[in-house]
TrEMBL record:
This is PorZ N-terminal beta-propeller domain-containing protein. It comes from Flavobacterium defluvii. Keywords: Signal. The lineage of its organism: Bacteria, Pseudomonadati, Bacteroidota, Flavobacteriia, Flavobacteriales. Coiled coil: none annotated. Residues 33-191 form the PorZ N-terminal beta-propeller domain. Pfam families: PorZ_N_b_propeller. InterPro entries: PorZ_N, Secre_tail, WD40/YVTN_repeat-like_dom_sf.
């Protein structure tokens, strides 16, 4: 099928922020190198230096790539995935075709990985973990499947090559060959075993046929079988013949042989600017050598004198699996530490922190963050964008100023405390949710201790509050996030006791938990709390959504109670987000709610939750995964950043903060062309502006009041029918009538 994003918001509304650091495979033409990272592509033209990236926004899958091949003859880039998916990018018209034939095969899912792609006579031979599949590059259709194991069994084919009229396959149980002209190649008996054993690679180097077994022993074909002649120091991870040279890559070196198999040169990983990188593949375009790495992307140097390596990887975050972010009007910070569903951080990852602004990424490495592990949250000081605090769920609280980490608050030098249940010598300071109050004090959650709520005051003093007075077992409780309302009440999501709220006036704690009379939550495990512009608290749990109708009730109600949102679907009343594992809630400038889930993508619901305006998944949007780690919104631009475990994308939403006046009002798209199926947006509005849209004769077709800076019109007359072609007048007036504006929009049906 031809795969295009033809949904209403239009492709331009999306942007991808992917990491290109983990190179999975590379390919080349006579002038261009093509590289595949985890789930994105980039290419660099050696002559013009032009770099092009392709991500899920253009139509790639968010799944993990395992093979890449560029066909110069067909001007097509073919991408193979670990799950058997294949995507064809047509250079001529930019179209992207998704092929699911291998995924749909009645085979174990663990056998569908695509290992290698080899072109011969217009046919692509696709090596998979079950066998070989033919793919016709002219018709973009799959042909025969070859199960070439003993008695037609499934067999893992690592690589194929064409040599002297035969197709050779390196497999996990031997090298097999068959006459390429034989019409019965899907009969396993037509495939002869040349050598037994486990093989990782096979390539044709001019008049020689070279294969490598899984222990790294290079063999040469003598017309009968393969004879060993060279032992590599490690197993090979990639082998390819390009321009009469053979490139053999191991995790620590690249060996380049001429067509007589004489070693021209060897590059070891200590020669690159970042030493001790893990190599994944290597190739050349003209006199330029390219080496792909697992950690830092793609490096290039002159082939004739392989030194002075340059990193040519497109800018991006350090890795795709971002755990959470924070966004201010001008900057975005991302962190990669994590914990599992049970708040266990014990893979204790050490990835550093990333910052994005002015289209540039700054990646601060782990070596510069004072050994802070599992950094799970980051917060920008709203009064000072140059000051940032990062929460480590093991090591304390890291302060960053002017992009330089300069202090780690921990149990020795601050009011922060280590968990105690492992004994007095064990240090583990678990900081997660943080929030600034209006006075600039930083409120901090410190998990699994008695005094779980802390504040770092603007004068540098610390104060602690005893969450043990409200929680059933404070030393077993982990905290997710914290928000502060207009009355300075702190609302905190907990792992096992619902939501707790704290007011400094009187040092009062209150709790919303399960049970009809004790808070009405579906479960006690709350993952996200968010405040909207109407003083409602939205509560996301691992089993659904609840809303506290007014946070002001903290002062008056002895027991706070949250309620589900009941919606009507197909005339049946049901609960919004019923049983969903909610990971994140963000509120945009028009008071819409963006709700992220653990496995169902993102929902955007109206202010009161009665209408689901968008439900984005991997099937209908550029989301690379349905596992949402975080959502944050830039209040100035309305850009919604959606963080998944396989990459971050943003949606340029309609919900911007309100403007001061009507001087910047604009309408888009304008004109509305027949191919456009989305809504017309009127942006740059002030809050509570009255908008009337009429036809040229003055007949009213739509009327609304803005909430925030943008409204949408679905180009219907009050939702009944699509309006006809013509010019429509948009009359905008401030609530007090003091300011007015008139705009026009042309609709072409």
């Amino acid at each position: 099928m031809l795969f295009q994003f033809s949904f209403a918001q239009g492709q331009l509304s999306w942007q991808g922020y992917f990491s290109f650091n983990e190179i999975k495979d590379i390919s080349e033409s006579s002038t261009i190198v093509f590289a595949a990272s985890e789930n994105a592509l980039f290419s660099k033209n050696a002559a013009t230096n032009a770099v092009k990236t392709t991500t899920t926004v253009e139509g790639l899958s968010g799944q993990t790539i395992s093979a890449l091949y560029y066909s110069e003859a067909f001007k097509k880039t073919i991408v193979g995935y670990e799950n058997g998916l294949m995507i064809i990018v047509n250079e001529t018209d930019g179209s992207i075709i998704t092929k699911v034939d291998i995924i749909n095969k009645q085979l174990s899912a663990s056998l569908k990985k695509i290992n290698h792609l080899m072109e011969h006579d217009g046919i692509l031979y696709v090596s998979c973990d079950f066998g070989i599949v033919q793919f016709n590059l002219t018709t973009s259709q799959f042909g025969d499947t070859y199960f070439i194991g003993d008695n037609g069994a499934e067999i893992s084919v690592k690589q194929t090559t064409f040599f002297n009229g035969f197709i050779f396959a390196a497999t996990s149980t031997g090298i097999r060959r068959a006459d390429i002209a034989n019409p019965n190649l899907n009969d396993y008996s037509q495939w002869a075993v040349v050598n037994t054993g486990s093989w990782s690679a096979i390539s044709t180097l001019d008049t020689q046929l070279i294969a490598i077994n899984s222990t790294g022993n290079i063999h040469r074909y003598n017309g009968v079988n393969f004879v060993a002649f060279l032992q590599l120091p490690q197993a090979s991870v990639d082998m390819r013949a390009v321009n009469h040279n053979l490139f053999v890559t191991t995790s620590a070196s690249v060996c380049i042989y001429n067509n007589q198999m004489i070693l021209n040169q060897q590059i070891v990983n200590t020669q690159l600017p970042d030493i001790n990188l893990t190599f994944s593949c290597a190739t050349a375009v003209g006199d330029l050598l390219y080496i792909g790495t697992k950690e830092k992307g793609l490096f290039s140097a002159a082939l004739s004198s392989a030194g002075n390596f340059e990193n040519i990887t497109p800018a991006g975050p350090a890795r795709n699996n971002i755990f959470s972010i924070d966004v201010s009007p001008n900057v975005l910070w991302a962190v990669y530490g994590d914990y599992d569903t049970y708040y266990n951080p014990y893979d204790l990852d050490s990835y550093g922190i990333s910052k994005f602004n002015n289209s540039k990424w700054l990646n601060i490495p782990y070596s510069e963050v004072y050994d802070a592990k599992s950094i799970t949250r980051v917060i920008i000081n709203p009064k000072n964008e140059k000051q940032v605090y990062a929460s480590s769920f093991f090591s304390g609280l890291l302060r960053i100023e002017d992009d330089i980490p300069n202090f780690l608050y921990n149990e020795k030098n601050s009011g922060l405390e280590s968990i105690t249940y492992e004994g007095p010598t064990y240090i583990d300071v678990r900081i997660n949710g943080t929030a600034f109050d209006k006075n600039g004090n930083l409120w901090i959650t410190n998990s699994r201790i008695k005094n779980g709520l802390k504040v770092l005051k603007t004068d540098g003093q610390w104060q602690s509050y005893a969450t043990s007075t409200i929680l059933n077992n404070a030393e077993a409780t982990s905290y997710s996030n914290i928000v502060i309302d207009k009355n300075s009440v702190k609302w905190i999501s907990t792992s096992n006791d619902g939501v707790i709220a704290f007011s400094e006036s009187g040092n009062v704690f209150k709790k919303i938990t399960t049970g009809a009379d004790t808070g009405n939550l579906p479960v006690t495990d709350v993952r996200s709390v968010a405040l909207d512009t109407k003083n409602q608290l939205w509560i996301g749990t691992t089993k659904g959504l609840r809303v506290l109708s007014n946070v002001g009730n903290f002062q008056t109600d002895s027991q706070l109670k949250a309620n589900p949102i009941i919606i009507t679907e197909d005339n049946l009343a049901q609960e919004l987000m019923y049983e969903q594992f909610i990971t994140s809630i963000a509120v945009d400038g028009a008071n819409n709610k963006w709700i992220g889930t653990a496995d169902s993508g993102v929902f955007m619901v109206s202010q009161n939750g009665q209408e689901t305006r968008y439900h984005f998944t991997i099937n209908n949007s550029p989301l690379p995964s349905n596992t949402i780690n975080d959502i944050k919104i830039n209040s100035t631009t309305g850009e919604v950043f959606i963080v998944t475990n396989k990459g971050m994308i943003s949606f340029k939403g309609i919900a911007t903060g309100a403007n001061e006046d009507l001087s910047n009002v604009y309408v888009y798209p304008n004109p509305v062309r027949p191919t456009y199926s989305g809504t017309v947006k009127v942006a740059g509005l002030i809050d509570k502006a009255n908008i009337k849209i009429t036809d040229i004769e003055g007949n009213l077709v739509y009327e609304t009041t803005s909430e925030g800076g943008t409204i949408e019109w679905d180009t219907t007359a009050f939702g009944k029918y699509k309006v006809a072609s013509g010019v429509y007048m948009i009359f905008i007036s401030a609530q007090d009538g003091g300011e007015t504006k008139v705009k026009k929009v042309m609709i072409i049906r």
